[in-house]
Amino acid sequence: MTATPPPAEPVVDAAPPPEPGGSDTRPGSKRDGQSLWRQAFRRMRTSPIAILGAVIVLAFVLVALLAPWLAPYPAQATPGRDLIRPTMIPGPSAEFPLGLDRFGSDVLSQLIWGARASLVIGVVSTLLGLAGGVAVGLLAGAFGGWVDTAVMRFVDLMLAIPSLLLAVSIAAIAGQNNTSIIIAIGVVQIPIFARLLRGSMLAQRKEDYVLAARSLGLTRGTVTMSHVLPNSLGPVIVQATLVLATAVIEAAALSFLGLGGGRPTEAEWGRMLTGAQAELSIAPRLALLPGLCISITALGFTLLGESLREALDPRMRRRR
């Protein structure tokens, strides 16, 4: 009697191991099913440019928040006013590490308090522009048709005017104070965010998940607010990070032109540049130091924004 061989075990195809240096996306792995933003954050942690930008931005934010404890003197204090001479401004010393300005204010304290003013103007104006741009872009992208045409023609009209010229005009009409600068910069940013969100929403409306949601009976408004809009905000958030750098520069430019108002001793980087014009020949550091602060801060936001854009770009993800 011939023995019957045991049945062969079924062959299960093993999942291929992850490529060297690539991401493990096998079912059951720890990285399987990660959200787009979590994957982007994981890639940014290994990017030297992103780390450098984050360090600069974090240092800027900490200096602004801790200004009352870091600054040797209050914002409006002029401890060295008795040391100022018409042809001589005291330089760095043990009491004043970065010297004095023409009003007798400590330059180091002015730079630290100026970081707080620049942070408030940059963040609030960007949030204002972001809110207005999302509202306008949502209106154009959700309704389409003649509403889209009318809204985008208005946006094109605003984009046709140079941004700095438009900001100067708005700030001059609104009045010489920091609030007018915030409004001016925020209004200038609205068409940028609106056009970006509108284009992103038009691209999302052609995706299969939108057709599937509509086939299930969901209304157009529900699909737009629950699916299309959240999936369209990625590029807008990246642009907001980049616009923060522009907001800091534009705030300094408007203050330099005298549209910020306030007293000459008020701590703000653009106003410090204005006060340094008359002393460039005898104390060039008064213009160099706030200029470096503006440039380094703008560089930090730019590096962080560019790294975030690359981390969210599908083409860049395929190259990694």
Description:
There is one protein chain. It is built from twelve helices and no strands. It has about 325 residues and is an all-alpha fold. It has a domain at about 60-65 and about 105-320: MetI-like (MetI-like fold), CATH 1.10.3720.10. Mean pLDDT is about 80; it is low at about 10-35.
Concise structural overview:
This protein is mostly helical and 320 residues long. The protein contains twelve helices and no strands. It has a domain at 59-64 and 104-319: MetI-like (MetI-like fold).
Let me know the average pLDDT: 81
- The first-level CATH class name of one domain: Mainly Alpha
Radius of gyration: 27 Å
- Main β sheet profile: none
CATH superfamily of one domain: MetI-like
Content-based structural category: mainly alpha
Oligomeric status: single chain
- Number of helices, where a helix is a run of at least 4 consecutive DSSP H or I residues: 12
Q: Assess the beta-strand content as a share of residues.
A: under 5%
Measured distance between first and last alpha carbons: 62 Å
Model regions low in confidence, pLDDT < 50 over at least 5 residues: 8-33
CATH fold title of one domain: MetI-like fold
Number of strands: 0
Shape: elongated
